[in-house]
Amino acid sequence: MSDDAILRARVDGADRLLSANAGFSAINERAGGAIGAVIAVPQWAALVRLARRLRILVSRAVTIADGDIDLDCWVTATPRDDGIQLAISPLRERAAWRPATLLSTLAPVVPPPGAEWVWETDGELRITQVPPGMGARYDFDATAALGAPLARLFTLEPASNGAMPLLEAMAERRDFDGQAATVRGRGVSVLLAGTVRLDAGGGFAGFVGGTFPAPVTPPAPPPAREPSMPASFNARLEQVLRGPLGRIIANADSINGGSEGPLDPHYSDYAADIASAGRHLLGLVDDLVDLEAIERDDFSTEADRLDLADIARRAAGLLAVRAADGGVSIDRSDLETPLPAIGEFRRTLQILVNLIGNAVRYSPRGATVWLRLQQDGDRAMLIVADQGKGIAVEDQERIFAKFERVDTSEAGGSGLGLYIARRLARAMGGDLTVDSAPGMGARFILSLPVG
Q1: Which of 280, 288, 279 is nearest to 412 (CA)?
Q2: pLDDT at residue 278, rounded to an integer
Q3: CB neighbours (10 Å) of residue 149?
Q4: How far is the C-alpha of 144 from the C-alpha of 50, rounded, in Å?
Q5: More confidently predicted of 228 and 107
Q6: Are 384 and 373 in contact (CB under 8 A)?
Q7: CB-count burial class (<10 Å; 0-12, 13-18, 19+) for 265
Q8: What are phi and psi of 153, to 5 degrees?
Q9: Residue 34: pLDDT band by 50, 70, 90 thresholds?
Q10: Which residues sit opposite 211 in a β-bridge?
Q11: Which of 68-72, 345-349, 447-451 has the lowest mean pLDDT?
Q12: Fewer CB within 10 Å of terminal CB in the chain, N or C?
């Protein structure tokens, strides 16, 4: 692609367009924008805000609607001292797809009526819009919240029967209401409702949500009944998300691998991003299924006789390729001597894969992750130690809470992994703790009863 075909623009610190070449100006003007005004194409404006907030170059593939066509393009937003530099490479033009069966999904999404204030998320429940004035009222940075998980604003609370209306609505791609929550920072109790937003293919694309004052006197609980939500909810997750995501990942990997022949590098990178996002969502599905299981009153684990050294070797083997790709070595030299313990094999392996995977993810290239065995009285312990940036003392309990992460700006999981791992360890009669300090790495210690 010639340099002339690239759309270029410069934006100031308030998202106002300072200058642009002819191609950029034409599309921006058709969207209602002009030089000196805020960028009118929402997808471009969102990347500008993200690059400014993160203070790093952001490069993403986006699709915009330009009249009767959809334009696939690759957008690069580069922070400068005086604003943001935009470079946009058009990749493909195609007729906008609007099947008659999906016309209702393309209509404007109306927020829940009567809301005190309105927020919006994308398909990964990351915040795309929040009123700036609400930040001052509820003591949070509204600008910094953009792009952050919805859990940055709200702590979601389950209903008396364990149901989470927002998560059920996400799985079923429908509207929801009555989700109890607490505004972080102020501890104010609220109720959330949301109108689902679907993409052109009928897939989940986020919520336009509203926040309502929580009632002073809670309504009377519904009549007692046998809980049926967990099994049906898991079945819906399997049906609605697992199959389609598996096909998306397989097709994206095939495109990225060039199995059908040479491909423009932009498309290959786009396919890799799709596959990565699909795996992230599959991980979230697994976490939600485990969450439903461990929070049931009748949840229990098997009491098997285990060799903790053998399970640690297996977990390290499962993560060997990921560690090699990240330039991280896993030291297994202490795993030759068996260490008997009591617990459930599958759940213990799940805990160790989570701990070692986190250690690899947060270790710099060239670092080592150590696995060490230890027995202390009636406790068999496995220690996973890394050379990451460490965890402050005030954050060391918080990382084991539901949907919590120390730094949400870093690539990572859903904030459920350590919560689930500790619940599993305690269900097996053991525990999961951390010993760390900033700049000194972290040591996660899994203890189980000696076998």
Answers
A1: 280
A2: 64
A3: 18
A4: 9
A5: 107
A6: no
A7: exposed
A8: -95, -40
A9: very high
A10: 117, 192
A11: 68-72
A12: N
Task: With beta carbons less than 8 A apart as the criterion, state whether 146 and 49 touch.
Answer: yes
Q: Please write the tens of the pLDDT for every residue from 372-382.
A: 999 999 999 99
Three-state SS string over the chain comes to CCHHHCEEEEECCCCEEEEECHHHHHHHHHCCCCCCCECCCHHHHHHHHHHHHHCCCEEEEEEEEECCEEEEEEEEEEEECCEEEEEEEEEEEEECCCCHHHHHHHCCCCCCCCCCEEEEECCCCEEEECCHHHHHHHCCCHHHHCCCEHHHCEEECCCCCCCCHHHHHHHHCCCEEEEEEEECCCCEEEEEEEEEEECCCCCEEEEEEEEEECCCCCCCCCCCCCCCHHHHHHHHHHHHHHHHHHHHHHHHHHHHCCCCCCCCHHHHHHHHHHHHHHHHHHHHHHHHHHHHHHCCCCCCCCCEEEEHHHHHHHHHHHCHHHHHHCCCEEECCCCCCCCEEEECHHHHHHHHHHHHHHHHHCCCCCCEEEEEEEEECCEEEEEEECCCCCCCHHHCCHHHCCCCCCCCCCCCCCCCHHHHHHHHHHHCCCEEEEEECCCCCEEEEEEEEEC
In this structure, which amino acid lies at residue 380?
Answer: A
Model confidence, pTM: 0.44
Q: Using CA atoms of 338, 343, 347, 352 in order, give the dihedral in degrees to the nearest 10.
A: -40
- Phi and psi dihedrals of 327, rounded to 5? 70, 30
User: Averaged over 310-338, what is the pLDDT?
Assistant: 90
How would you list the strands of the sheet with 69-80, edge to edge?
17-20, 7-11, 83-95, 69-80, 58-66
Parallel, antiparallel or unpaired: strands 340-343 and 379-385: unpaired
User: Is the pLDDT confidence value at 349 over 70?
Assistant: yes
For the beta carbon of residue 220, count every other beta carbon within 10 angstroms.
Answer: 6
